[in-house]
Amino acid sequence: MSTIVNAQRVHATGPAEMMKWEELSLAEPGPGEARVRHRAIGVNYIDIYFRSGLYPAPTGLPFVPGQEGCGIVEAVGEGVSAVKPGDRVAYVGPLGSYATARNVPADRLVLVPDGVDDAIAAGMMLKGMTVQYLLRRTYRVTPETVMLFHAAAGGVGLIAGQWARHLGVRTIIGTVGSDAKAELARAAGYTHVINYRSQDFVAEVRKITEGAGCDVVYDSVGKDTFPGSLDCLRPLGMWVTFGNASGNVPDFSPGLLSQKGSLFMTRPSLFAYIAKRADLEATAADLFDVVKKGAVEIQLNQTYALIDAIAAHKDLEARRTTGTTVLLP
Ligand SMILES: NC(=O)c1ccc[n+]([C@@H]2O[C@H](COP(=O)([O-])OP(=O)(O)OC[C@H]3O[C@@H](n4cnc5c(N)ncnc54)[C@H](OP(=O)(O)O)[C@@H]3O)[C@@H](O)[C@H]2O)c1
Question: Among 220, 279, 326, which residue has the most ligand 1 atoms within 8 Å of its CB, making it the best to mutate?
Answer without folding.
Answer: 220
